[in-house]
Every structure is written in C-alpha cells, then in structure tokens.
C-alpha cells in the first residue's frame, strides 16, 4: 500500500489494549508511527505498551477514561509531551449496551452515550486544540462507529443512538475541516470477533433465552460473507484512511462488515 511509505507521525489510538484498538495501534506502529494509547485498566495499558515495545515499536500510553473531560485533556497533553503534536487520532474506545428500551436504566443510557459519543467530541476537540493538529496543515481523524450507526439494532437503542451520533459528528466535522488538510472519517464495523463481540453474544443469549453458540450461528447467517470480520481487517481500513494517499476521502462512513450493511 502506498500509505506504508508515509513519513513517521504521532498517533493517538484510544481503547488500544484490546480488539480493534490493539490491532490498529500495532498496524500504525509497524508503519513507523509513534503511537500513544490509553484504556481505563492500568495493568492492561502497561502490558500492551510492553508487548508492542518488545516488537520494536515506538509506543507509550496512559490510563484515561475517554468519557471524562479532565482525563481526556490529560491524555492528549501526555501524548504531546511524549511525542509532540498529534497527526493521527483514532477514536476507537467504546462499549456495547442495550436491552428492552422500556427497562433501560438512566445510568446505562448515559454511560453508553458518554463513552461512545461524548468521548469522540472531547478527544477530537482536544487533539485539534491542545494537541496542535489544527495548526499542522495535515491531519487524520478516524472514528470507529458501527453499522449500528447507520441502521437500528434491536435491543441496542443506546448503542445505535451513540453510533449514529458518531457518524453525524464525523460528517459535520469532516465538512468543516475539509479545506484544512485534516480529513475526518468513520469506519463502521459490522460483527468483529473481539472480547466485546463475546459480551454482546452473551447479552443476546440471556435476552433470547438461548445459547451463545446459537446466537453466533444466527449472527453469522445474517452476514453475506458468512463470518465475523477480524480486528486486523478493520485496522487495515483505519490504516489506509490514516495514510497520505487517502487524502481525498473526507466526511465518509465506510463499512467493514462482510456485506452486512449495503449502505
Ligand atoms: N466488536 C464488534 O463487533 C464491533 C462492531 C462495531 C463497532 N465496534 C466498535 O469498535 C470499537 C472497539 O471495539 P472492540 O470490539 O475492539 O472492543 P473491546 O475488545 O471491548 O476493546 C475496547 C477497548 O476500549 C477500552 N475502553 C472501553 N471503555 C473505555 C473508556 N471509557 N475509556 C477508555 N478506554 C475504554 C477497553 O479498555 P478498558 O476496559 O481497560 O478501558 C479496550 O481497550 C468500539 O467503539 C466498538 O463500539 C465493535
């Protein structure tokens, strides 16, 4: 890919101790970028940094909850102190969450929206301002949304609402920044085999009074490709969007879903 010849840049990948975030951090680091990561669990951040450094990559990180304005500011400041101003931001951290809407507790709704949507605003704003991106004339902001950000997911109203919000934010900011050299795009995974996907299958198995194996079979039957995507396949598109050659892709929401979403 042409993007592999890009010069080394500084990237933040949120929620990079697991799944799609981890695969993305590794891909960007393998391309020679300096990658700063975060998650809430300090042990997992330290372990991930060590594992990636052991492979020879330039990686550091800190604990931060992306739903906290103070912790997001601290995350971005730490990344700048460590590696300089930010060229690439991957807003990946997120959570699942839903249920029968009439029974959803306030705390669940607020936390899903805060973790998945408010976080994207907070991190993006701070990377553009204190992270220095808006003064650089080049930047890449990639938001991990979901096919649930384009269609409604049964028993997933908070999640679907949050991801539709991420897609809307992406389109608006992508247009706002289009002439600045900063592109803003969303990647919309369908079903991706990660720890989150396992938790989602557990939730549906409980809600529909069946086994996780049965849920897996039902979900795979909905995917034209017949299988979940891998975290590496999603990271591949994120890495492409982060490259120089993707410079004319702006304000888009692109699916990695095995044909699940035709939109
Ligand atoms: N897997 C799928 O099928 C799928 C499909 C569509 C979209 N997505 C989206 O893809 C993204 C990654 O999902 P995944 O499947 O890779 O999930 P995952 O395996 O559960 O990993 C989530 C990562 O985010 C971190 N995280 C969660 N909440 C956080 C918070 N409040 N602040 C900071 N970090 C946080 C987790 O670490 P800590 O718990 O230590 O904080 C972990 O590193 C999410 O935005 C998700 O909605 C996933």
Automatic annotation (TrEMBL):
Xref: Gene3D superfamilies: NAD(P)-binding Rossmann-like Domain
Listed InterPro entries: NAD(P)-bd_dom_sf (IPR036291), Sc_DH/Rdtase_CS (IPR020904), SDR (IPR050259), SDR_fam (IPR002347)
BP GO annotations: monocarboxylic acid metabolic process
Keyword Transmembrane helix: no
Keywords: Oxidoreductase
SUPFAM superfamilies: NAD(P)-binding Rossmann-fold domains
Taxonomic superkingdom: Bacteria
GO MF annotation terms: oxidoreductase activity
Similarity-based family: Belongs to the short-chain dehydrogenases/reductases (SDR) family.
PANTHER family in alphabetical order: 3-OXOACYL-(ACYL-CARRIER-PROTEIN) REDUCTASE, 3-OXOACYL-[ACYL-CARRIER-PROTEIN] REDUCTASE FABG
Name of the featured protein: Ketoacyl reductase
Natural source organism: Actinokineospora bangkokensis
